[in-house]
Design brief:
The protein has two helices and 29 strands. With 355 residues, the protein is mostly beta strands. It has a four-stranded antiparallel beta sheet with strand order 1-29-28-27. It has a four-stranded antiparallel beta sheet with strand order 2-3-4-5, with no helix packed on it. The longest helix is centred in the first third of the chain and has 17 residues. It is globular and about 55 Å long.
């Protein structure tokens, strides 16, 4: 109870201080970026990056991020969970309004907290945002969850759904039709054979499908490669997953696989031109965009074109981090990359990319 209340107080204070005229001496300074006003974001040239307002709060490492597109044409990104890098988690849901380039909290921040980070991603079905799995510092140790949540952006409420068949994390999520597809990257073990756990803690390739109408999970065909901490996206009714690996996000990999729900089969496609690690990205405008580091640390940005089975080199940012999702600004799909702060670092350099 006290941990939940403390997390709420910290994040609420961060938003309050962000609105003050004077800089609070106890808060880290935001990086010196160019003008972050909404008009500058709306008029940037194609194939360019622009900074956005930094996300307040300290639980900025490895949150989940999803987006809701409202009938007015406005996109809002919702950031769930995350950790402060020092054993703490449980931030309230943070909301980014793309049109105004501003951050806010839900009307009831206290009841919109999740103690989770490095989830299996977020999917939007019928306007609700579903996310699953992830880590939590429970009882002083880092544990992997099977929990599934649905967030309603209209009512700003979180609802618990049927658990994943396994305790998993580090995965990717896609939505095809009205179904949620989750490809986790890591499975949790507790030392004994027990329902919902793997025999040993390991990377996995199992694909799960969730039906919100029935609240039931089923297991589908396993992916031919491991994609722990990879990038996934749905294009023309197929689920594309690239990079990631078997060990961790710091190993550079290049493999691209695609899942076809009509046949319940996977196919391996053209690999990345250069193996990448610590990748972020999303599908938009009929392409899969991926940003990551090479084995030597340089940043690369590629877009995959399904029609030609080829990768195109795109403008790379000077720095990046966090999580990515597709948003719409002035009728154009763009890539939002959110990087948050921790107890040891100031807010990250969140950015938006215009293809």
């Amino acid at each position: 109870m006290f941990r939940r209340l403390w997390s709420y107080i910290i994040l609420t204070l961060a938003f309050s201080l962000a609105g003050c005229d004077e800089e609070a001496p106890t808060q880290p300074s935001a990086p010196a970026d160019p003008d972050n006003t909404a008009p500058s974001l709306a008029t940037v040239a194609s194939n360019t990056w622009a900074p956005i307002a930094p996300m307040p709060g300290e639980d900025g490492f490895a949150p989940a991020i999803g987006v809701a597109d409202f009938s007015s044409g406005v996109s809002k990104a919702y950031v769930f969970g995350g950790t402060n890098g020092a054993g703490g988690s449980g931030a309230a849901t943070r909301i980014y309004d793309v049109a105004t380039n501003t951050w806010s909290l839900p009307k009831d921040p206290y009841n919109n907290q999740v103690y989770v980070f490095n989830t299996n991603g977020v999917g939007n079905i019928g306007g609700k945002l579903y996310f699953s799995g992830g880590y939590d510092y429970g009882s002083g140790s880092k544990e992997i969850q099977s929990t599934v949540w649905a967030f309603d952006p209209v009512t700003e409420t979180l609802t618990r759904k049927a658990d994943l068949p396994l305790h998993t994390a580090d995965g990717v999520t896609g939505v095809i039709g009205s179904m949620l597809y989750v490809l986790p990257g890591r499975c949790y073990a507790i030392g004994i054979v027990y329902l919902g756990y793997c025999v040993q803690e390991e990377a996995i390739r199992k694909l799960f499908r969730y039906n919100p109408a029935t609240n039931i999970w089923v297991t589908k065909a396993s992916c031919p490669h491991y994609h722990r901490n990879g990038v996934g996206g749905v294009i023309n009714g197929k689920f594309y997953v690239v990079s990631g690996g078997k060990v961790d996000q710091f190993t550079a990999t290049a493999t691209l696989d695609v899942y076809d729900p009509a046949t319940n089969t996977w196919k391996t496609l053209a690999p990345l031109p250069t193996p990448l690690r610590s990748v972020v990205g999303a599908a938009l405008q009929g392409k899969l965009f991926v940003i990551g580091q090479t084995a030597t640390g340089s940043i690369r940005h590629y877009a995959y074109v399904p029609a030609t089975n080829k990768w195109i080199t795109k403008a790379a940012p000077d720095s990046y981090g966090g999580q990515a999702t597709r948003v719409i600004l002035n009728g154009i799909s763009r890539l939002l990359v959110v990087s948050g702060g921790t107890v040891d670092s100031p807010p990250g350099r969140s950015q938006i990319y215009t293809p």
